Each structure stands twice: as C-alpha cells, then as structure tokens.
Amino acid sequence: ETALITASKLPALLNIGNCGEVINLIDNDILPIINSHVSNPRLNKSLPMEFLYDTWVNVHLELAIALAVQGSNRASDVLNTLLKIIEKHRIKDEKLIYKAKLTQAWIYSVKGNYNDSNEILNQVKSFFDREHISIDNMNFEHTDILNYYNLIQIMNKFHKKDYDNIQESLFEASIIASDTGNEYLKNIFKTLLGKIFYENKQAKHAIE
Fold it and tell me: What is the C-alpha separation between 166 and 75, in angstroms, rounded?
C-alpha cells in the first residue's frame, strides 16, 4: 500500500522535473514491491488487482520518461519492457500507448534520429485530429500528451535549426504548460523563448 501511495506522487514529481527522485523511488521503493504482488497476487488480497496492475504499467511508463529526459541509455530497455507488457496483455488504452510513443520519439531525438522522431509526432497529431481533441476539451491525460508533443517538436526544430514560427510555438507551448500545471516544461519553453528574443536582439523581452 505504501508503494501505491508513493507511486501516486510520481506525476507531480515529473511535472517539476525531479527525474532523479522519480527514478530512485521507482527502483527502490515502488517497482520491486509491486512486481512481487503482480507475480504473486495472493500476497495481499486486500489490494484490488486491477488498480495494482494499472499502477504497475504506469510506473514503467513514468520510469521510461524520467530516464529518457535524463538521456539515459536505460530508457530504451524500460520502454521495451513496457511495450512488451502492452502487447502481451493487449492493452488498448490509447493515451498510454501514445505516451509510450512520445517517449520513443524523445529517445530518437536524443540520438539525433529526427526523422523517426517526427514520424511518431505525426502519428500523435493524427490521434488528436481523429479524436477531435482541442485544448478546450482535453482532460489531464491529453494535456500531458500535448505538453510532451510540444517539447519534442520544438527541440527537434532547434536541433535542425528550423526556426520558422518557433517564437509563436514556444509562446503557445509555455502557456499550455503553465495552464496545465507542468512547471518544468513551462520553464524550459520560457528559457528557449528568452534565447530566441536574445538572439533577435530583443533583450528586454528575454529578461522578462
């Protein structure tokens, strides 16, 4: 039960960029305990297995995200484990699947494989278009996807020196991140926006 309570704090820690603590908590205090209960449900019959199972899956995703943001090679191994779980148990949760796809896109970007990364971004955009999802009708899970979509798309543009409409994209992304409580990404977007203002000799805006 303690592991499940601790696991519930992980999204908030990711939102403030505390990836190191996320990794430490999962590796030492959460995943070993949840793994033992998933492999042997009789250990504690008071725990709802569906809730335990969902937490187990999401913890793998949160670990993969934290490792990917840190640029760790281990991110690919954790993500592959998650993808095998999704395939084996025929999980149809599209939001989970697209978060996993975005994690793969980030891993591709870190390795300089921008074409494969952008291909995944196109898949995510198609998902939003297909579901008729806009910023006005998003729930928490959708906004989480949008925030990381914005991050990867903008970082890919920076690495490829594609600055077309970058200022507008950063401004919009920072507002969305702020409105959805992701302080970590908001600060990244604002820092990059300041860099653009500075390079365009708009020092006053850069300071703001």
Answer: 28
